[in-house]
Amino acid sequence: MSIDSLFRPFQLKTLNVKNRIVMAPMTRSFSPNGIPTQQVAAYYQKRAEGEVGLILSEGTVIDRPSASNDANVPHFYGREALAGWQHVIDAVHAKGGQMGPQIWHMGIMDNHHSGWVPPVPFEGPSGLNRPGFTNGSTMTQKDIEDTILAFGKAAADAKATGFDCVEIHGAHGYLIDQFFWESTNLRTDGYGGKTLTERTRFATDVIREIRKQVGPDFAVIIRLSQFKPSAYTNKLAETPQEMDAWLQPLVDAGVDVLHCSQRRFWEPEFDGSDLNFAGWAKKLTGKTTITVGSVGLTGDFFGAFAGESSQPSSLDELSRRMDRGDFDLVAVGRPILADPNWVTKIRTGRTDDLKGFSKEALVELVME
Ligand SMILES: Cc1cc2nc3c(=O)[nH]c(=O)nc-3n(C[C@H](O)[C@H](O)[C@H](O)COP(=O)(O)O)c2cc1C
């Protein structure tokens, strides 16, 4: 099957991407005290050189005192960190790539295995990371307002630094997702509620503030997931109607692209159709969508965290869905983490040279 559909250019607002392949955001923890180093810039530059169309950075935290549980996760605030990011985007542009930071607030977290803790307790909608696990405080109205402003400031800084777009991390059980999920959002004020639509209020306020700060023409992406690391099979939306009630408010608030995170892109979202999450999101909203999850690999990323290796696999099913118009862009994580030249190898048919993925790739910034 032809992979030509992966190599068509893509244009939307500030995005002028040479192909449909996006590097998925992947936390690396190689930024001591939150400052991205020259080595981090070189790591992303190698991916731009290797023909990745759009790079999404690892999650990088906004200016809230307990936004992170890890001292080596990069900040997206402060003079030194932003200077580090300036090197990153300049390095990526020098090789013809495009890039956006994934701006992140982790919300209520487990303490990091390093023993490092932030200067104040974690904060979240109801102090909960998952049912029965509290590790921090419930956000006040003022905390919420300040956090919304901090997301807006980070997006404005992304634009000012020269990034091509910004991605809001609204997935995987972190702060914004803690507001979406009824099990972690027990609030009785305007940020809680029985319906998923009511629980989108925090996300929509974040999107509106970002839109206000970056203007109408800067591309804004939000990443979403049905699953949580503590609940693999969770579904925030059980039906297409519920999904519409979740996504439409985000679109109305001004987001351009829905990045639909799945563990395995080929899994249908609902019974009765083979459409995946990105397929449904596009069908329901008409917006640009990104799919992700085990593209080109045999095993999924939860397996990778458990130390499992994955072998290269066929792109036929991906191409079938892409040709059908299910989604616009395809994010690829571990293959590009492990091999900066993955895209070039795919484009030129050098499939025998594909590396797959093994856990050794996680402990370094792979440059070759
Ligand atoms: C080491 C690692 C770190 C990750 N960090 C993030 C992150 O910071 N933000 C995020 O949204 N997803 C993160 N993910 C999930 C990936 O973006 C992606 O959705 C997942 O790996 C599935 O894609 P893949 O099967 O192509 O690897 C991470 C995945 C890995 C393997």
UniProtKB/TrEMBL annotation:
- Where in the numbering of this chain does the NADH:flavin oxidoreductase/NADH oxidase N-terminal domain appear? 5-352
Pfam families on file? Oxidored_FMN
> What InterPro entries does UniProt report for this protein, alphabetically?
Aldolase_TIM, OxRdtase_FMN_N, Oye-like
Query: Record's PANTHER family?
Result: NADH OXIDOREDUCTASE-RELATED (PTHR22893), OXIDOREDUCTASE-RELATED (PTHR22893:SF55)
Name by which UniProt lists this protein: 2,4-dienoyl-CoA reductase-like NADH-dependent reductase (Old Yellow Enzyme family)
Native source organism of the sequence: Spirosoma utsteinense
